[in-house]
Write the structure tokens for this entry.
Amino acid sequence: MVPRFATRKKNKLAAKTLYEYGNYHRLFVEWLETRKKKKHIPVHSITRADMADFIDDLMEQGIGAKTIQQKYLAAISGLFELAQTTGVIPEGQQLVSRGHKIFSKADAKKSAITNSYKAFTEDELKRIFQPTLLSQAERPADFWLPMLGLFTGGRISELAQMDIADVQQHNGVWAFSINDEGDKSLKTLAAIRLIPIHPVLIQCGILDYVNDAKAHGTKLFSYLTPNKFGSYWSGPLNPRTQSPT
């Protein structure tokens, strides 16, 4: 069922998500094989008690309830859903991966409050974007990506993958087109949007940079290459970063 899941979801899940799900699936399969002392365990033979014991083992390893529910169980539930869709598990039968409720809505609310990001203060932004620091940027992306992030609110991974053609003029207004065309990818379809280019970016020369970039290819930052998940930028946002990780 694990290979079948990977095949079915290859074009439906982000590459990184599919990779992570595969790791959770393999971990679960290995745990089951150790528990039952045999290989190739039919998915319909897995019980709710098996799932409960798996959860207990994860907790004993120090893995948090939120991670277990939102990562491990979400991935494993995908296997059972596919098994039900393909007739391996009878339609209407409750999936053994669901309903364990180890991380409630109240827990989620508390976690959101505890782990929410604090906005930068004005003084912090001034230190981050001080001209002397930005002037040390060794590549255009090291200068422009922090600036684009500040003035668009976009994800750096979205901005780093832009094509030159994504810098467009609509009714006299310059804008960035954030889309998933070609080799680009987005977290969700809702992320497709147009972002007006802030006047400060234009004053800093972003349109001049776009014209210069045309000599080097079709990408806005042609020297950035995607990682194994297709992301053009996954490292920390730092003007001195030598290359995306």
